[in-house]
Design a protein that fits this description.
This protein is of the alpha+beta class. It contains 5 helices and 7 strands. Strands 1-4-3-5-6-7-2 form a 7-stranded antiparallel sheet, sandwiched between helices.
């Protein structure tokens, strides 16, 4: 992978812009078992992607509708933890190398509009800290899509499988 000289400043500039919008980088690690950004991107932008909701791009209140629909879905999917933290993947130079940004939303409203104001474009992917739920915004040719997805096996099970159960890693058959 080719690294750009100013990649660090791109990240720093993005974090500063997000902070000005009330989306501060949260302390703490990115939890283990979180789907990789490429996998999440395929859910949103891949050929099989389907929106949960759509908004016409040309509508006078398109931004307000996107904000309301995204928050409705984000709340349903529990994207935010109790401290209003979530994982953000926003496209910027070096974003795939950086990966997820753990952010805390101190405002709690109009999150898509504030992310767009910080990044300069409206597409982004949000994932819950447990890695099980995704809620994204994707700008298509004539519509804005709210895309949701549930990663059923995002986190490793804490219970050891019994010998009769199939291990998804080994490919063994179940009895």
């Amino acid at each position: 992978m080719v690294h750009r000289k100013n990649e660090g400043s791109d990240v720093s500039n993005l974090l500063d812009a997000l902070a000005r919008q009330g989306l501060n980088e949260a302390g703490g690690e990115i939890p283990e078992g979180i789907p990789e950004p490429r996998k999440a991107s395929l859910v949103v932008y891949g050929g099989n992607a389907r929106p949960t909701s759509t908004v016409p791009r040309r509508g006078p209140s398109a931004g307000d509708q996107v904000d309301a629909l995204w928050h409705q879905e984000a709340e349903r999917l529990e994207i935010f933890d109790r401290d209003r933290e979530f994982l953000l993947f926003a496209t910027y130079p070096g974003s795939l190398a950086r990966g997820w940004i753990r952010v805390k939303d101190s405002n709690g409203t109009r999150t898509p509009s504030r992310i767009a104001a910080a990044t300069g474009h409206s597409d982004f992917i949000a994932v819950s800290l447990d890695g099980k739920s995704l809620c994204a915004v994707s700008y298509e040719e004539y519509e804005i899509w709210i895309v949701t997805h549930s990663f059923q096996d995002a986190r490793p099970e804490t219970v050891e499988p019994t010998p009769e159960r199939k291990s998804s890693d080994t490919g063994e058959n179940r009895p």
